[in-house]
Design brief:
The chain has 317 residues and is an alpha/beta fold. It has 15 helices and six strands. The protein has one domain. A hairpin with a 3-residue loop joins strand 1 and strand 2. Helix 1 crosses helix 8. The longest helix is centred in the last third of the chain and has 21 residues.
């Protein structure tokens, strides 16, 4: 339910909560890459929206930076593009995303997914999961129309991601309607600069470097809650659309408070790592839009919080 270097230090004794929901909210580029490989992108115009996601702004004499939290999988009829957001998009001279569309579509990304997410011909998933977890996962895949043979090539973390993506897409939450994807399309069409805060391997290795035990834990705990994925996405969408920041923060960080080190790896250290690139936007005259996962902009240690702690005036717009 979004991603940096190895988490192997967390593998021993790792006990995740809401695992597949967590995959869906943090595996930004990985989830979008997997989902987009299953779907045909199609941007759609939107009617006037009754509510709108929160926007923040930071400025100096010749630069304005807008911040918009994003949701990576949405339904086709989700009305998020308000007149204000449209104006900002049209005025922007640059767009900053977690990963650029070019990185998402690059042969390197595809190669990394293949090498880090799939077993070679001499190995398979059943060799790395307890029998009970493997049987339950196979049943979940078969229920969603995916044969066991296709599942067997996946490493556990990729299998968890795949079942999340398939479940979300079958509920109508699609990557081609995700905010990041649509903004990337618009920026590409307008030929403005697109900046990436991370590299594809950063996000992939968050899961790929987990031990088999930790990856199996994602599967085991996640399967217990997979039937609520649609409800989770609906609650997340509603909180985001209405700028209910308290609910949004709760949904984004649910379960992470029980493992502060994991929370730091998934969210907070990434926020800190992004600050130099975001602050550098103030050195470039123009209007800049920063669009990152909504969980990075709410709560303590968020990008907004860290910028304010450094003395920047960042206000709701």
């Amino acid at each position: 339910m979004q991603i940096i270097r190895s988490l192997s230090a967390l593998a021993d004794g790792f006990s995740p909560q809401n695992s597949l929901k967590r995959l869906a909210r943090i595996a930004t580029g990985v989830l979008a890459f997997v989902a987009l490989s299953m779907a045909t992108a199609q941007a759609q115009a939107q009617d006037q929206v009754p509510h709108a996601p929160a926007i923040w702004t930071m400025a100096d004499d010749d630069s304005t930076v807008y911040f918009l939290g994003t949701i990576h999988l949405l339904k086709a009829d989700t009305p998020w593009q308000s007149e204000t957001i449209t104006d900002i998009i049209n005025e922007a001279t640059s767009l900053t995303l977690e990963l650029t569309p070019q990185d998402m579509a690059s042969p390197k990304m595809q190669s990394l997914v293949q090498s880090l997410g799939f077993y070679g011909p001499d190995d398979q998933l059943s060799n790395h999961l307890p029998e009970e977890s493997y049987t339950r996962l196979a049943a979940a895949f078969q229920k969603r129309g995916i044969p066991t043979q296709a599942m067997d090539r996946l490493k556990p973390w990729m299998a968890g991601l795949q079942i999340t993506v398939v479940s979300a897409m079958q509920a109508g939450f699609m990557p081609q309607f995700g905010v990041d994807h649509l903004l990337g399309q618009i920026a590409t069409q307008r030929e403005i600069e697109i900046v990436g805060l991370e590299q594809p391997e950063d996000q992939l290795r968050l899961f790929a470097d987990l031990s088999d035990e930790a990856q199996a834990a994602f599967i085991r705990e996640g399967l217990d809650q997979i039937d609520d994925l649609e409800g989770y996405f609906e609650r997340l969408k509603d909180a985001w659309l209405t700028a209910d920041l308290d609910s949004l923060n709760t949904l984004m960080t649910d379960g992470l408070e029980e493992n502060p080190e994991l929370a730091d790896k998934l969210l907070y250290s990434r926020n800190r790592n992004w600050l130099p690139a975001i602050e550098a936007l103030l050195d470039q005259p123009g209007t800049h839009l920063v669009a990152v996962g909504a969980g990075h902009l709410v709560g303590t240690q968020s990008v907004i919080d860290l910028l304010q702690d450094k003395g920047h005036q960042v206000d709701r717009y």
